[in-house]
Amino acid sequence: MSALVSAAVLVGFVAGCGGSSDVTSSTGSASNAAATSGGAGAQLQLVAYSTPKKAYDALTTAFAQTSAGNGVTFGQSFGASGSQSRAVDSGQPADVVAFSTEPDMTRLVKDGIVAKNWDANREKGISSDSVVVMVVRKGNPKHIAGWDDLIKPGVDVITPNPSTSGSARWNILAGYGAQLKEGKTPDQALAYVNTLLTKNVSVQDSSASAALQTFTGGKGDVLLDYESDALAAQKAGDAIQLVYPKQTLLIETPIAVTAKSSHQSRAQAFLNWQWSTAGQTIWGQKGYRPVVASVAKQFADKFPTPPQLFTIDYLGGWSKVKAEFFEPSTGSITRIEEAAGVPTAS
What we know:
Number of domains: 2
Largest sheet: 11 strands, mixed
Strand content: 15-25%
Number of helices: 12
């Protein structure tokens, strides 16, 4: 089996937007706005998965310029989604949490850190959408067109580690679901994932941003990634291009206010604002698919719809998927990773 290595970083999309580190990192006020004398000052702690740092920089800066955000500053922490969720569960201060996958939010709901009704709104608690894409070298020298190409001999694939990265789980589930869409049985779909992970994936970094740097640093023929992440790298000038497979998975990323926040009204105001036309427009400008339909229409030409795009519900929903594939020791993907010698400790 190929050796595993690690790396980190993300790059910009529109007007230099993009990245974050592959390890949890805290920055100062993301809005770069000091509390003003005209409003009650409050610093909100935003804890999020790694890739949308630049998007949140733009969102928090714009929010601070509104009447609802007057006097609000932000402290931010970005890292692999699973690691961030566990950190908050272990006591890391957070007013707003934004993860890659629903189970990372569910962990906090179970422990009373996030309210049970966190997703009881029109957007179902989802901040923005993306899709799983294949990122290749400019000119696509290996002629990658779809999922079957990823398991051909000599094709080196990069994807993060599903024990820490939400992106990795989306990637793996996209490949698995694509096999079902092609008419294969669940056993055949799992066999495909087994082949992909054990024979063709050479690097499993801790997060999507780390995997992106590994790829842009010269390792691998194909990177499985968020569309938003790949667009950011392309906009920044990296010699890559995106391949949209015929079958792929819609990525829906959750956001919530914590129940223990001492600034709940301010935190909720930020969530409400990022679902506004202004907030969703920023998401779209940064390479993320808006979840508000009226705004999404404005970006229809920027985000192609793959012919067989499916959601997590096609695979039975996150509760079923997590238990079947990713539970420690018993999950089928976890067992594949353990057999291949890949670290699976969360």
